[in-house]
Amino acid sequence: MALSKLDSLYMAVVTEHSRNPHHKGSLDGVEVLELHNPTCGDVVQLSVKIEENRVADIAFDGHGCSISTASASMMTDAVLGKSLSEVQDLAELFSRMVQGQEPEGQEELGEASLMAGVSKFPQRVKCATLAWNALKKAIERQNVQ
């Protein structure tokens, strides 16, 4: 069975982000939020620096499958510099997309829009959304303070 051009692009981008993740590490002086995926053992530690209601810097660490790592890497690229309301919208858009919905505006996710293919594998949705869920929690914590 031959892969479509979109499937080939998805595989190439996921592989690249998994092998060479962007914004990998942690930020000094920023609270680290850790989430686990009990289904497969993936762990993400997310550091988000928020200044003037925007994501001024972001980093992640942890361990997980290629989808989890690639999704976290793509997420950091997509949200850096965005306002918190934009980030919340992107997180919701991503969540709907990987659950098989086809929301308008997916292109706003940048390379993360390629993760739409995860919807074909429901057991991998939690892997793809782990870092995004950590981001939502980090923003919720920021809004409470």
TrEMBL record:
Residue ranges constituting the NIF system FeS cluster assembly NifU N-terminal domain according to the UniProt record: 10-127
SUPFAM superfamilies: SufE/NifU
Gene3D superfamilies: 3.90.1010.10
Protein origin, superkingdom: Bacteria
Pfam family, one: NifU_N
InterPro entries: NIF_FeS_clus_asmbl_NifU_N
Name of the protein: Nitrogen fixation NifU-like protein
